[in-house]
Amino acid sequence: MKSILKFLSYLGLAFTAIPAVLVFTGTISLQTQHNLLVVGMLLWFGTAIFWVKREKTGG
Amino acid sequence: MRVHTSGRTLSTGSRRTGSVRSANDTPTPMQSGFPVPASKNQHSPHNMTPPPSQPQTLVERLDALYEFDREPVSDNKLHGGKSFIAMFASEHVAGTEFVLGPLLVIHGVSAFDAFVGLLIGNVLAVLSWALMCAPIAVRERLTVYWQIRKIAGPYLTVAYSAAFAIILCLLAGAMINVSTTAIAHPLGIESPNYSAGEHFPSLPWITLAVIIGAVVAALAVLGFERIAHFSKICAPWMPFIFLAGALAGLPMLGVTGLDNFWEIARTKIWTGVLAPGESQYGFWSCVGLAWLCNISQHMGMGDVTIFRFARKWHYGFASAFGMFIGHYMAWISSGIMCAAFIAQQTALGVAQPNVNPGNIAWLGAGWAGLVCVVLAGWTTANPTLYRAGLAFQVATPDWSRWRVTLAAGVIMIVTACVPAVNFFLDRVVAYYGLFFMPLGAFIFIDYWLFRRLGLERNYAERRGLRASWPAAVGWFGSFLICFVLFAKDNYASFSWVNDHLPAFLAAYRADFFMQVLPAWIIAVMLYTACSFVQQKTASPVPQTSVA
């Protein structure tokens, strides 16, 4: 389960990074990039919250 | 700036503004991620229980607040290098990176200044962490609070903490301002355009800032640990948004590939032409700003509090991961977004584009950009406000933790409603760094030089002095000298100073951001010379009082 969550999280980061390159090369429009960034954001925050560890406290 | 630190994950500070971070603060258990004595948790925002025996004087109260960090860190609590890499990499992308990058564009730096100047400045910052701060941290293994107290005495330590609480409130306010620009955008509320003469926000904008500030203050009281966790989640994602915004902005400026990037960067982004009414920044300004941005943490020794948990001194080089993501990539990216926004607005016929974090992030990254701005501001403001509250609590021992944090929140909200704070954020960061750096210089010199000069280390502690006058002279003297050397050519009310200075000093034109080096040298010289006078004219230290 954790592996799937991590995969989806990294997919979210990929949705954040790759469209930027594509809009730079003119492959996609700016609006499409913005939409993909939202998808990436939702993927990242929707999954990372379940596996990124809290800091250990008190010891 | 951490600024910063920023406390996103493991750090002590307000996230470094430009990551401006706190220098004297002790990491909370949630923030540091480093083991802490159980007693430390008594001071978490969730536990308002006062210590059993209530200290009475201001000094006793301050000591009690930091009592749990009085002992050097033991070997079984040390951390490996990965912890420090993770800490620096995650905490140096703050809301203020959306401000500082554009400020370099507006102040007319050239592309060479930006790329090479920031590179050198960040390398100097990393070297300062690695060669000045970390080595002392791993030898002494004490917090900066106790190190300053040994050298400067409790009264100056109280003054240091009080001043720090105020600056933390200002920085938290700057973060709220950043977040407000992002939330105001989709609501159709125009953020104040300071460069166009709008020195006060509109009522709806102030209302929004008050709401955001109140929410942040409430969350700082109620849920600090969860926010620290959420900050950690945000950290890997935010640098990608900076990159995405910059890459999206490049085509708007005419960049079609690597072949014409430098030409466009030189002629359309960092043009060397400053905006009307601004002061000219150059190569040394970029070097100085990058170096000085977190000076209270490295040369000011604030991060001895963090690096005392390091197994080896060379973990100080881990700071490179923070500097080159947050203060290099992010500043350059936000500078590109700023130039793209100005170009777009100019093409639409806007005479004075309103450059603010919300507007530039919206253009480059849309809704995700706005969320990034909000989160970058919010997750930085929270730990900053928490620490400000901690420092203020010293002066208000009868107040509960939530009450003092909310009081700090009021100052933060007022600051957030002053657009000038972010417009002059680089100056605020510079003053903040220069003011707090000298005490770190004293720690450095006291440790490495005093015995070789025949002087006693930790003289204030050994003699039981309430305040060390050499430290006071070195601290305030160095700051005043450096300020006057800058002000004489930059503030009309100080121009008379030139008439009374020797010719070589009157001809000296100080770059405020490059005052780092003279400030450090002056501080050290004053402190060392005064210590000579103090120690050579004093009676010998009784053996029984030597620690």
Fold topology:
The complex is a heterodimer of chains A (59) and B (547).
Chain A: H1 2-24, H2 30-51
Chain B: H1 29-32, H2 58-65, H3 81-91, H4 97-106, H5 111-140, H6 144-152, H7 154-187, H8 203-222, H9 224-253, H10 258-269, H11 283-292, H12 304-307, H13 319-347, H14 357-393, H15 401-416, H16 419-423, H17 425-448, H18 459-463, H19 469-490, H20 503-506, H21 516-536
Helix pairs in contact in B: 3-13, 4-13, 5-11, 5-13, 6-7, 6-17, 7-8, 7-14, 7-15, 8-14, 8-15, 9-13, 9-14, 13-14, 14-15, 17-19, 17-21, 19-21
Quote the average pLDDT of chain A: 88
How many strands, which pairing sense, and closed or not: the largest β-sheet of chain B? none
Biggest interface and which pair forms it?
A: A-B, 30 and 37 residues
- In terms of DSSP E residues, the strand content of chain B is under 5%
* Class per helix and strand makeup of chain B: mainly alpha
What is the CATH architecture annotation of the largest domain in chain B?
Orthogonal Bundle
Structural description of this entry:
- The complex is a heterodimer of chains A (59) and B (547).
- Chain A is mainly alpha-helical.
- Chain A has helices spanning 2-24, 30-51.
- Chain A has one domain (2-51).
- The model of chain A has no long low-confidence stretch (mean pLDDT 88).
- Helix content of chain A is 76%, strand content 0%.
- In chain A, α1 runs antiparallel to α2 (30-51).
- Chain B has 547 residues and is mainly α.
- Chain B folds into two domains: 29-58 and 79-427, Hydantoin permease (Orthogonal Bundle); 448-545, no CATH class.
- Chain B has 21 helices and no strands.
- Chain B has helices at 29-32, 58-65, 81-91, 97-106, 111-140, 144-152, 154-187, 203-222, 224-253, 258-269, 283-292, 304-307, 319-347, 357-393, 401-416, 419-423, 425-448, 459-463, 469-490, 503-506, 516-536.
- In chain B, α9 (224-253) runs antiparallel to α14 (357-393).
- The chains are: A mainly alpha (59), B mainly alpha (547).
- The A-B interface holds A 12-13, 16-17, 19-21, 23-24, 26, 30-31, 33-35, 37-38, 40-41, 44-45, 48-49, 52, 54-59 and B 9-10, 29-33, 35-36, 38, 40-41, 225, 228-230, 232-233, 236-237, 240-241, 243-248, 250-251, 255, 365-369, 371.
